[in-house]
Amino acid sequence: MREVEFVLDRETGRLEVRIRGILGPACDDVARHARELLGVPVREAPTAEYRLRPAVRPRVRPRGGA
Amino acid sequence: MSKYLSFQADAFTDRRLLLAALTDLGYRDVEQGEALALYGYQGDRRPETAELVIRRGHVGRLSNDLGFKRTAEGYVPVVSEYDQRTLLGGRFLVRLRTAYSEQAVEEIRRRLAGTVQRTVEGDVVRIRVRF
Predict the structure, then answer these.
(1) Which domain holds residue B24?
(2) What is the DSSP string of A14-53?
(3) Which of A33, A43, A57, B69 has the fewest CB atoms within 10 Å distance of its CB?
(4) Which residues of chain B neighbour A33 with C-beta distances below 8 Å?
(5) What's the complex ipTM?
(6) Distance from CA of B44 to the nearest CA of A (A)
(7) pLDDT one-digit tens code per residue, B2-54
């Protein structure tokens, strides 16, 4: 399950956005929505999970004989 | 967690969400236009202009017009020092930022077609959107 957690501090007005469960730059799509509506973040940090790439193995099909 | 972003800027990027946040705080009468003049509590014209204006009659007897000036970063509040100190107990900008963030979270949830779980602990609101 993919999840975005918003932590809003009503005392200071600070909003933190934590994007979870989305491997690699695909989470940039979610971050793009946040930037579009909330502006430029004062802090932005990719985590270890962000640096992972989805494992995609090329499928090799046996060639049919001519 | 794959990415972490933190927001606390004074500019409000989305006009529609800003108007909705102002409505949440009780400011429904907002004049919209280009470079609208701003007036002080004595009716004196101020040097600043703004694209969104709440006239002082809707704010308070000793208040000045509240404005939002469009810039490249978004709509920036034009609020007198007096009003910053007195409106909503001196917390006008924090309350507006909070209301705006709530509107933005709901818009992101809608775009992601997600479900929401909300918890409140003191002043901290946690909103989890799953999609």
Answers:
(1) 15-130
(2) -EEEEEES--GGGGHHHHHHHHHHH-S-SEEEE-HHHH--
(3) A57
(4) 107-108, 111-112
(5) 0.85
(6) 32
(7) 666 767 678 999 999 999 999 999 999 999 999 999 999 999 999 999 999 99
Chain A residues with beta carbon closer than 8 angstroms to that of B17: 37
Contact B3 A50 (CB under 8 A): yes
Question: Does residue B108 lie in a domain region?
Answer: yes
Q: Using the beta-carbon criterion (under 8 Å), do A8 and B98 form an inter-chain contact? A: yes
The Cα–Cα gap between B120 and B122 comes to: 6
* Type of residue found at A12: T
What span, in angstroms and rounded, lies between the C-alpha atoms of B33 and B12? Answer: 17
Question: CB–CB of B31/B52 below 8 Å?
Answer: yes
Whether residue B7 is contained in a domain is answered as no
Domain count, chain B: 1
State the residue for tokens 């509590």: B41
**pLDDT (tens digit per residue) in B73-125:** 999 999 999 999 999 999 999 999 999 999 999 999 999 999 999 999 999 99
Q: Which of A11, A19, A36, A37 to mutate to test the interface with B (most CBs of B within 10 A)?
A: A37
φ and ψ of B83, to 5 deg: -70, -35
